[in-house]
Amino acid sequence: MAGLWTRMKTWSILHFLFCYILLVSGFITCFLMSLTLVLWPLNKDLYRKVNSYLAYLWWCQFTFLGQWWSGTECVLYIEPSDLQYIGKEHALVIMNHKYDIDWLMGWILTERFGMLGGSKIYGKKFLKYIPILGWIWYFTESIFLERNWDQDQKTLVRDIQEIASFPQDVCITILLFCEGTRFTEEKHRISMEVAEKKGFPYLKHHLLPRTKGFVLSLQAMKGKIPAIYDCTVAFRKDGAEPTLRNILHGRMCRAEMYVRRIPIDTVPYNDSKECANWLHKLYQEKDKLFDQFTMLGRFSGVQKRTIPRRYWDLIVWLCWASVLCLPLFVYIWNLIQNGITLYQALFVVTLTVVARFFMKWSIGLSVIKKGSAYGKKN
Q: Domain Phospholipid/glycerol acyltransferase, which positions (predicted)?
């Protein structure tokens, strides 16, 4: 029976239903978010609270696929003194960017701590124009950059100060990949050539961090966002390869994440050069941590903790599936009973093609080898 269920998870018809639910629920979510724009000039805090819940209704479908469909696990290494703060304060999250689904492991943990709706990102400007995903990031006030420093420094200061004014009962996490792009061997080679020219130590598992945006962000955050959470994620070899395709096919990935809380007031952000050097030293420490994991198959020195799953993402997905699939099944049954017209056939074919395209496009976005060319130039 278990073998049959495992095979069923690879069936294209089930993947079609996942994409259908994700697509239609996404448009519904974006429509509801557009209606909340009237709240912005009247009550900004209310607008933000409502949209954090609406964003959760869509984002949690990804954590459902990870936690419940594929059974993927992400265990945490963290000091008890740091753990007590998670979910109780705004934070800047720094994460390595080595895998297709490192972001999903971050989402899984933020979901377990009840913080998923308050997640923000630093992203390329074009991302906000991507249907559904980009629109939701836009409505929830993520930071979009053009990779033009003269323009981006104004955007960073303005958007960070705006985000920092979020109400305290909506804990936000701003995810920053300081490397600027996903790790590939080609980008790593180029990055280490730059490191050698500038006199920085060699990093085996990371790219050289880009410091200007980080420094300016901290200067804009001072007194408003209290802590940095330094996260280093790695995947065990006894799990499936960490790809979104394997998650969709129900294959379990096994992630482990080492997290350190760093109070922002301990970082020398007032001195740009010292702050940049601090970030370089942090990445040297992260590189040693990751190297330790590759040798031992685990992190060490800190207690390992499994944060229990909540049921909310499962409940939300079941609700979406019930609301959206029942009309679809009734429609298909009526077609079978009464025959199908040309227009109905075109509608079904179009829906199938769109859902399949959306599935392939979503998987393609997460694949490392299809990542941006950023980092391939000195």
A: 91-215
